[in-house]
Fold these 3 entries.
Entry 1:
Amino acid sequence: MGVDIYGNNENHEDGNYFRANWWGWRPILAVCDYVIEANDLHLSTDCWDSNEGGGLTSQEDCTKLATCIDTFLDQIDEEHETVYANFGFWKYTNIDNKTPPIDVMNKLNQQYPIGTLLYRPIALDDDIGNGEEDTVHPDHLVDVPHIQEFSLFLKHCGGFAIW
């Protein structure tokens, strides 16, 4: 399950199709929302969180978004190849599929509100952690190369629809 994004430019390999699962798409969408607001792009991401055909209709808008995404990615430290988006649920970094207790997640969500983008796991301090584990991260994450792939798609798609 995820998103299939079809570009209007069927003749360009990089702008024809982009795919992401929901766990990866939500952070990409959060990056888009962030750069749209930060750069006052006046673009709407309505319906980008569903398979209802939302998207952008012009290459000009797609190019603007891609340029802002690239600038955003340039600011990320090279040693960090992952973008995490907080949607309220956290995992311990060093233990597969183990989640912190709800009181720890609530404290983390107060410190890092829903929608916060992070670039590295968070070290738990004594006020938040329970002493069992030392680092956590939001459960929605995407590798930087996948975001770069979406930016490349945007540069050549001629507009797109999310299905």
Entry 2:
Amino acid sequence: MIIYNDKEKAIAAVKEDGGRLQYASDDLKNNKEVVLAAVNQYGGALRFASEELRNDKEFVLAAVKQNCDAIQYASYELRNDKEFILAAVKKSGWALEFASADLSNNKEVVLAAVKEHGWVLQFASDDLRNNPEVVLAAVKERASALYCASDDLRNDKEFVLSAVKERASALYCASDDLRNDKEFVIAAVKQNGDALQYASEELQESLRRFNNENI
């Protein structure tokens, strides 16, 4: 059903509700100004754009810049295009969620994404979530990104110490075993004096009692 044939009326309509783009004429669904106005209001409106625009690298990047949700409706060709995804994740790391499987396993792409927002590590491949360089980059941006790392890294003493050195609160995201390991926690505190508060409650209480008894 076509309701909008007039460009100005279509722009006014999609500025109120981007989803109204679906009722625009085919010509208007292929009009960059109209579609960008729709995407700015609602990222998912890109799904109603013409196939030509959804495969237009420059245009979709502009859409993603306005609303990162738009990338999920880019063509598969673009979501599998390294140059495009690299540019997209630099604008919004969350674009990694919609990258192809091959690109979510591309170290350069994932590093760029986690440096923009550490939590997008969750969308990386299993191999890269187990890569110390990638995970540390994510932790530097956001300590809680350690939650998204592999279980092996979250339980790796050497790696977690390096993470705690960067961000004390990373200890809170380490494995329960490490957070309750007295020797390890003491080593972590030596790396970063703020780390103790992120150890297990049981160990914090034990260390407090020890300190009180030895004052």
Entry 3:
Amino acid sequence: MTHPPAEDAGPMTVTALTASDGTVIVILAGDLDIASAPAARERLLSLLRPGACRLVIDMSAVRYADASGLAVLVSTKRRAILLGGELRLAALRPEVAKVLTATGLSRHLAAYPAVRAAVADRKPGGRTALPGTSPPVRAAQALPAQAQAEPGADGSELHSPAAARPRSAMG
């Protein structure tokens, strides 16, 4: 699959390429924040399809990530899981790794020291690249409630099947 060359997502640049094993490698550069989040989300989600849903994001050039940027990573992981794939982060800068750890997302987003390790699913000592975190959790366990989410009516938003079920009347 061919991907367009780098796209400017506001203060962020998004470049995608496909590895020989079919893994889509995305290189993000800039700030993953409220200004870049909508375009970055759209671009990342557009790269996911059934059969092409293994995504590795090279974070080495991401200088900053705020809550909006972290939400992009979580929603991309959810979509990848729904399509039977996965999301892996690679080469996190210490300042971004600290934000993931502080928010608890490091337990849900697998991080690797380098892109090559993420593609090959290799970690030194079997541990995540983030300091003070446990080994990555497999996709089925990563986001229990969210992983069970389904696409909404318009196909873009994800909704929990439990939320769609009618509640029984209180007696």
